[in-house]
Design a protein that fits this description.
There is one protein chain. By secondary structure, this protein is of the alpha+beta class. The protein is built from 4 helices and 11 strands. The chain has one domain: 3-Layer(aba) Sandwich (Protein Transport Mog1p, Chain A). A 7-stranded antiparallel β-sheet has the order 4-5-6-10-9-8-7, with helices on both faces. The longest helix is centred in the N-terminal third of the chain and has 18 residues. The chain is globular.
Length: 188
Amino acid sequence: MKYSHFAALLGLMLMSCSSHLKNFYPGNYYSEDNIYQNKILRFIITFDSNWQLWTDPAAMNRDSRKFARQLHKSGIELLFIGASTEKYLGTRAIAVNLNEPAREYAEYIRRLNLPDVENDQGLLEVTNGPVEMVRWIYEKHGFGFIEYFFSSGTFDIRIAFWTRKEFFKKFLPVFDSIMGSLILTDVY
């Protein structure tokens, strides 16, 4: 009897360990200030007050957890996934340690996704103070997307926003404003 309880307890422990996904580059979202900070990747970004972000895969919905696991197997990390409180707008951030210029990383991602992309508006280099980024706007499956690519040290970071195609132009200034708040920080 003792051994069956021990075996059951051990089985539960193994199952709980296997379902937890360890973050390579953990960050925090401070909802009281609407700030996402990643000390390892050395950046801070401020969202509008009507956003919710999830940084722990265990707190994400099932599809997002599955996506995070899929990326993790390739050494890529889903830093956060989020939505506006009314669920019209979405966002996510991905990081990988490739040590590539932002432009080259953006071109690679664009080539990978081109078969599914509609209304590709190409890549555009933009500058936010000292931060150089590459911006990509496109449509896919009835949604408008904008992705921003930038580097922090040897890390390539990709932050995407999306909404229904008919709302995209209206919210483009919101996405640009959020990315305009991006600050690269020093090592702590």
